[in-house]
Amino acid sequence: MPRVKSCTPAQLALAWVLAQGDDIVPIPGTKRRRSLEENIDALEVQLTAEDLAKIDSILPAGRAAGTGP
User: Where are the domains positioned within the chain?
Assistant: First the structure.
């Protein structure tokens, strides 16, 4: 898969969640300071409409789902 941005997979995931709207809030599990800093840096990842379209084409809404409890 081609890289969308120069960031870690976790940062990309957080940036994608943040791009879903003001009523959506990511709650990452963070145990280490390094991970916290990486998560905070995700705020600097700017996804364009083209980036979001690429991500959605790779993993369309509803394609990934858990089985629940």
Answer: 9-58
